[in-house]
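Example complex used in Figure S2.
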Amino acid sequence: MTGTRGRIDKRQAILEAAFTVFARDGYRAASVDTVAATAGVAKHTIYNHFGDKQSLFRAAVAALADDALARNLAAIETLRPERDPVEALTEVGLKLAKCYCDEKSWAVRRLLQAELGSMPELQDIVRERATDKVNDALADRLARLALAGHLRLSDPAVAAEQFGALLTAPFDARSRLGTRKIPFNELAEVTQNAVQTFLRAFGVR
Amino acid sequence: MTGTRGRIDKRQAILEAAFTVFARDGYRAASVDTVAATAGVAKHTIYNHFGDKQSLFRAAVAALADDALARNLAAIETLRPERDPVEALTEVGLKLAKCYCDEKSWAVRRLLQAELGSMPELQDIVRERATDKVNDALADRLARLALAGHLRLSDPAVAAEQFGALLTAPFDARSRLGTRKIPFNELAEVTQNAVQTFLRAFGVR
DNA sequence: AAAAGAATGCACTGGTGAGTGCAGTTTATA
DNA sequence: TATAAACTGCACTCACCAGTGCATTCTTTT
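Predicted assembly (410 residues):
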């Protein structure tokens, strides 16, 4: 009666393979046989663990969303009110930009958007696990910066929304929706631009 | 030898039906039979006009991209340097936001992103026809505003990029990727926020 | 009116993929 | 060591769908 119900290593291997294959081929074009082959596992094992293709997909996406949340929150932690706001915002911005431009992040967003029609719950899975929490955490930190006298803002939620917008939206075009890898200096440039504009609008100067 | 080669009305009906079905079901899940039925046309007719499923898809997406471009450019026309910049930016912002939140726009972006892997050319089709031109046009107008002394900016391209970011990115979250319809007052609110922040950063005050 | 071109309906091929059934093997637990 | 549970390999069903072939029926042009 130990915790090895379902042989965790296999389950993990399946989840990783599933994400790889789904990300490469898309949900519909990916076959369960391919996932099985990639994971080095019999097709039956997959059906034992996850029941059907949809559930496997949901599980894979959820796992990735958890990952992404952790990395984003870790980045936001860096934003402490006792630091120099320019420096701190730039560092956090760069970290968040890196998260956003991660290959897996692109894949999750792509899969999510593609299958929205057939599996609306996906939206909530990802939003509850990641997006919302990241925005809240960022808003909290910005509020503390404002309280410390480093920013002048009326609504921290809006400020977080806009900081995020300035930081991520430019990459949609620049990386051609994740097709092209963004070189580091461009990452830094966009971050720089975002922080500069954000501080021009909300900084105390 | 008149211009009716291919019976335009049928071709048009097919394109519209194709887009409807693709947008609803996604590229792979949509069957050519369904498109034919929706268009009220025999399957053969589709193959006569477009050759195969992929070409039909490309044609449908391209047609929609042309539409979107026209609407976006029309919106940007409104941005004339002799007008009051706050008013002008707000009006243009609202129009652009409306374009971005249009149901068809969401569908195009969804389909595009979903099929990027299997049809990379799509990216270029849409970018050449719409995105790039819109950005350029916006940058041009912002440059003229700056020249007229209404804005203080070093790089109009970056300014356009950021105005676009502030204007569109918030809707990704707020409309849940196009799932939820944005009520007008929220559209106005986001636009308001965007213009306000943009002018705080780049306005002459 | 005749001929050419489009469009239609229907049946058919060939391919693919989700999910199941089964018989046998490995691994862990008691 | 016995026994249950998990895993494997393979074959099989069933459904769906892109694309084609053909005989027939409009529609347009000359």
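Residues 1-6 of chain A have pLDDT under 50 and may be disordered. The two ends of chain A are 63 Å apart (CA to CA).
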